[in-house]
Amino acid sequence: MPKKKTTSSRTGTRRQYSTGDADLDRRLTALVEELELAPVDARSTYELLVTAIRMAEEPLSRLDRKLINASVKEMRYAFNVFSKYRDRKKVSVFGSARTPADDPNYKLAREFGRRMAEVGWMVVTGAGPGIMSAANEGAGQESSFGVNIVLPFEAKPNPFIASDPKLINFKYFFTRKLMFMKEAEAFVLFPGGFGTMDELFELLTLSQTGKSDLHPIVMVEAEGGGYWRQIDAMLREDLLTRHYIDSEDLGLYHLTESIDDAVAYIQRFYRVYHSQRYVDGKLILRLNGRVTDEKVAALNSEFGDIMRAPIERVTASSGERQDGDVPDLPRLRLDFDRSHFGRLRQLIDSLNE
Length: 353
Known about the structure:
The protein folds into three domains: 6-58, no CATH class; 83-269, Rossmann fold; 273-351, no CATH class. The chain is α/β, with parallel strands linked by helices. A seven-stranded parallel β-sheet has the order 6-5-4-3-7-8-9, sandwiched between helices. A four-stranded antiparallel β-sheet has the order 10-11-13-12, with no helix packed on it. Helix 8 (227-240) links the parallel strand 8 and strand 9 (254-256). Helix content is 44%, strand content 16%.
């Protein structure tokens, strides 16, 4: 039987997450048991069923139900498509759908897609024209994903991804954006309009607040354009000087006019650092190789201001082993304050040196 999740009530007591009908809960449990899932998957499946039943019984509008239903189906389908390619790193590429093929930024995006595919990465775009088409063209169909938003006034998916099973259509921007953010290990932005700005600032917000893992965020444009320099100047002059952001937050992104530099910057981020996960409230950094004791001591010295205890070596936790979450990689455990993510980014950069 899947263990039922408990939640806190206003009185501080704990109650099981259930439909409120004991007989129905037992039938749902029996149904989940027939699926013969791993315990953690059984629990989440049971809770999804309970949520659906509770939603059916609550005074939601028909629009509420349609939105929940459509978004869950979109996520299920998209996660299933991406699941077949989890062994390959991916970079999400953003930029204007209005960039013509003879624009220097189009040519730059096409070359970026080609270079990333050459080093084994896949390229995820919004599947539209302009910069998106350029990146898919450069990467080639085998190394491309398209997460397309269905709009009444936009062009159809670009020809470099249109016939591919890795093209996924979305009704909602928020489910589409989730795929961009969750499924990629790096993000590259070329000049664009409102959509590109939306994606840039969501990325920066998620990184600054720790609601996503840290990843390389690179703003690329053709030489002499000045687009990203103006955005960078605004962040420094209008946000930093007013203390709306910290100086370390400016290190969450990187500006360049060079494809060589963009590719090297992304690859350098994963030279030693592999990935991260929280275990019992502590941040676990998984590494591509063992670091020296001297390096660990240097990190403790330089970044003690954001740690509540010294950095330690650890092995994979039981949860990581159960999930097959790279259990053989070396690990460092950080009692991180979960506040200064710009400084944490600096720590990862130092780790990669």
